[in-house]
Amino acid sequence: MELKEIKELMKAFDASGSSYFEIEDQGFKLKLKKPSDIKVQAAPVTVAPQPSAQVAVETPQISTEEKVEGDVVKAPLVGVFYSAPSPDEKPYVQVGDKVKEGQVLCLIEAMKMMSEITAPRDGVIKEIYVKNQDVVGFEEQLFLIGD
């Protein structure tokens, strides 16, 4: 693994909501961990003040008011989210699209490798939580697939 690739991974990890990342590639092993006292900046979250309550700011969650049922598709790795196969093509999916199990939903680029993220089941795209070219963290919410 080259120094440039390591720096790109570290930058993506630093910008992500993840607190831990580990990768092993051809005998090279890299572990990244953020100290627990560092707050990760994510999407703005409004919380009613409560005495001595801790608020973990990571990825936007579905509010209790929405109560949208379905399965959340999460990022299996840290990288850059791409909603389309190339900049001049339309996105793989949009809110309201029907998808089949195994259908490509997006791409995540890590270390110049593109990984296809596929639908875990048949359903309808209810939510898309990230925007094209956002850096996503491990286990960050990408899509909500409902009935």
UniProtKB/TrEMBL annotation:
Source taxon at top rank: Bacteria
Entry keyword annotation includes Acyltransferase: no
CDD domains: biotinyl_domain
Cross-referenced InterPro entries: AcCoA_biotinCC, Biotin_BS, Biotin_Carboxyl_Carrier/Decarb, Biotin_lipoyl, Single_hybrid_motif
Any one GO cellular component localisation term in the record: acetyl-CoA carboxylase complex
A Pfam family matched in the record: Biotin_lipoyl
Annotated GO MF terms: acetyl-CoA carboxylase activity
UniProt keywords, alphabetically: Biotin, Fatty acid biosynthesis, Fatty acid metabolism, Lipid biosynthesis, Lipid metabolism
Swiss-Prot/TrEMBL GO biological process terms: fatty acid biosynthetic process
Pathway: Lipid metabolism; fatty acid biosynthesis
Domain Lipoyl-binding residue range list: 70-146
PROSITE patterns attached to this UniProt entry: BIOTIN (PS00188), BIOTINYL_LIPOYL (PS50968)
Transmembrane segments: none
Entries under PANTHER family matching the protein: OXALOACETATE DECARBOXYLASE ALPHA CHAIN (PTHR45266)
Function field: This protein is a component of the acetyl coenzyme A carboxylase complex; first, biotin carboxylase catalyzes the carboxylation of the carrier protein and then the transcarboxylase transfers the carboxyl group to form malonyl-CoA.
Listed NCBIfam families: BCCP
Name of the protein in its database record: Biotin carboxyl carrier protein of acetyl-CoA carboxylase
Organism of provenance: Pseudobutyrivibrio ruminis
Gene name of the record: accB
